[in-house]
């Protein structure tokens, strides 16, 4: 018998053994019944006697569902999702700074030098032209300011999209990158219903308050953004939380502002000042007293403004018929 024939017989024997093992896996070890796989519960169960042969199985499939081939192709993905918060939408490669290999061992001095050169060139190649360098700097500014202001990720994403639109429509000439980036974040925060006052934005920005306001009006007008006037009630939860006040105070402050709006008291007034005064008044009415100075520091507004708005809110409340 030749070597080829021997190898063929061995291969056939191995295949038959594997098929027998597979057949054994498909039958119940108790009654010999047929096994069924329940993908919803992650279990393999005997259809005859109900024995659970396997449980807590890992589902290797995707977390999304698709109902046709086109939807499947559209949802299929590899790697991390793209994001507008990075100039290359997160599709570039980053080289780690740890200077360690895959096993956690430190690299030699020669390898460290090599990796440092690669990092340098990788950083240079990530921005192909001045437009991408501009975008990278601006998105870094947006992320820095949003972190300092405690703004959520959806606001950062919206601000990044607004800045990209401003760059594409050539609104940057004559204006600073930081100014347009700050204006984009200010607009995004107001669109998302989590506004920050101009003073708060100014505190974390690298440009002055007048430039922020001027650039904001220009960007909103040129891009046709729909930004509603800031509602004083949207500031109340943050102020109440920073002052460690109860939900009762927050509810009472909203009620004061609602009454003031129905009387037209809010017209022409700073929404931040009205919100701060409402929180102060509600805390007094609910016997959870805070000082005007504490509210002033949280809202970043003067005590004089709080006193003036406070009296106006109480007068509007007293004029409501019971």
UniProtKB/TrEMBL annotation:
List residues of the TFIIB-type domain: 24-54
Query: Which organism is this entry from?
Result: Halapricum hydrolyticum
Functional description taken from the UniProt entry: Stabilizes TBP binding to an archaeal box-A promoter. Also responsible for recruiting RNA polymerase II to the pre-initiation complex (DNA-TBP-TFIIB).
Ranges of biased composition (kind: Acidic residues): 18-27
Q: Any stretches that span the bilayer, and where are they?
A: none
Any idea what this protein is called? Transcription initiation factor IIB
Task: Point out the gene that encodes the protein.
Answer: tfb
Q: Where are the sequence repeats?
A: 140-223, 234-315
The answer to keyword Protease applying to this record is: no
- Give me the residues that bind Zn(2+), please: 28, 31, 46, 49
Which biological processes are named by the entry's GO terms?
transcription preinitiation complex assembly
Listed Polar residues bias regions: 81-93
Region annotation (Disordered) maps to 1-29, 69-93
Q: Which family does it belong to?
A: Belongs to the TFIIB family.
Do the record's keywords include Transcription regulation? yes
Q: Which NCBIfam families would you find in this protein's record?
A: PRK00423.1
By its UniProt entry, which InterPro entries does this protein fall under? Cyclin-like_dom, Cyclin-like_sf, TFIIB, TFIIB_arc, TFIIB_CS, TFIIB_cyclin, Znf_TFIIB
**A Pfam family:** Zn_Ribbon_TF
One GO CC term of this entry? Answer: transcription preinitiation complex
Which portions of the chain have biased composition (kind: Basic and acidic residues)?
1-17
Q: PANTHER family, per this entry?
A: TRANSCRIPTION INITIATION FACTOR IIB, TRANSCRIPTION INITIATION FACTOR IIB-RELATED
Alphabetically sorted, this entry's keywords are:
Metal-binding, Repeat, Transcription, Transcription regulation, Zinc, Zinc-finger
Q: Which GO terms describe its molecular function?
A: DNA-binding transcription factor activity; TBP-class protein binding; zinc ion binding
